[in-house]
Amino acid sequence: MASRTPTPRPRAARPNADAAPAAKRPRAGRSVATSTSAGDRPRAAPLSRADRQKVQSDQRRAHVLDAARAAFFELGLEGASVREIAQRAGYTPGAIYSYFPSKEAVYAALLGESLERLNACVAQAAADAPAGNAPAALTDRLRATATAFYDFYADNPRDLDLGFYLFQGMQPRGLTPELDEQLNTQLRAALAPQQLSLQALGLSETQAVAEVTALFAHVVGLLVLSHTGRIRMFKLQSRTLFEAYLAQLVARVGARGVAV
Fold first, then answer.
1. Do 71 and 158 touch, CB atoms closer than 8 A?
2. Do both 86 and 136 map to the same domain?
3. Where residue 112 sits, what CATH number does that domain have?
4. Are residues 87 and 119 in the same domain?
5. Domain contains 39
6. Does one domain contain both 184 and 119?
7. pLDDT given for residue 15 in this prediction
8. 36 lies in a domain?
9. Which of 100, 135, 163 is the last residue of a domain?
10. Could you please report the per-residue DSSP string of the chain?
11. Residue 9 in domain
């Protein structure tokens, strides 16, 4: 009897692991989540023409002030002309005058910005100091705000230079009375927390003003000695002398019958 050769059966195809899976159809009743494209997100309203012009004007004004700051630091107030400032800014002198009426007005803007930063440092020190009207808290606030004033100029000597550019001898030059008063108001604001602490400790307004004036003069003198390097001839540190003066001030307040 002849043998039959078995016919091979076809094998089922194996799934290819590298093949991409077939897309699944969403089941009925289920929503398909779709990502929101960037174009579908709400956009901020565009600036008006007036707002765009103001932004551009503010940027150009800041650019002029940056150029003026560099010119003043390198050449001094007398050596830095409007033409020099314009050249550094990449503008014509006429363009500078469209933002500032004079070189002194440029200086006043720079000094005003510097005094704003000074006031921010002093205000932060007052906020971080202990609150309340207890003598110890008032003394801590006095020390903290006076130290913030000193540290601002010790850490930023160019801001100290900026404060002296308009003085030759003992007379301020170049500022209008309005600008001069505006800058003085900003400076007094940085000294006001010390005066308020002294008055809260029992000093009269007249006594507190006298003490703050002496403190300001002492701080400026030490900063100038430190900035110019003259303090080295005494083999002393300006900060050590400043802290000693603060301790003497607190002692004077205590000698007037206020427990500190």
1. no
2. no
3. 1.10.357.10
4. no
5. no
6. yes
7. 45
8. no
9. 100
10. -PPPPPPPPPPPPPPPTTSPPPPPPPPTT-PPP-PPPGGGSPPPPPPPHHHHHHHHHHHHHHHHHHHHHHHHHHHHHHH--HHHHHHHHTS-HHHHHTT-SSHHHHHHHHHHHHHHHHHHHHHHHHHHSPPSSSHHHHHHHHHHHHHHHHHHHHH-HHHHHHHHTTEETTEE-S--HHHHHHHHHHHHHHHHHHHHHHHHTT--HHHHHHHHHHHHHHHHHHHHHHHHTGGGGGT--HHHHHHHHHHHHHHHHHHTT---
11. no
166-189: pLDDT as tens digits: 554 434 566 788 888 899 999 999
Query: For the chain, how many structural domains are there in total?
Result: 2
Cα separation of 203 and 78, whole Å? 43
159-188 burial, b at 16+ Cβ within 10 Å, e below that, comes to bbebbebbeeeeeeebbeeebeebbeebbe
> Residue 147 half-sphere exposure, CB side, CA atoms within 13 Å?
17
Co-location of 154 and 81 in the same domain: no
pLDDT confidence of residue 57: 86
- For residue 79, being part of any structural domain is answered with yes
Q: Which amino acid is at 147?
A: T
For the chain, list residues with pLDDT below 70. Answer: 1-44, 165-174, 257-260
Domain limit, last residue, from 38, 71, 100: 100
User: What local confidence, expressed as pLDDT, does residue 167 receive?
Assistant: 53
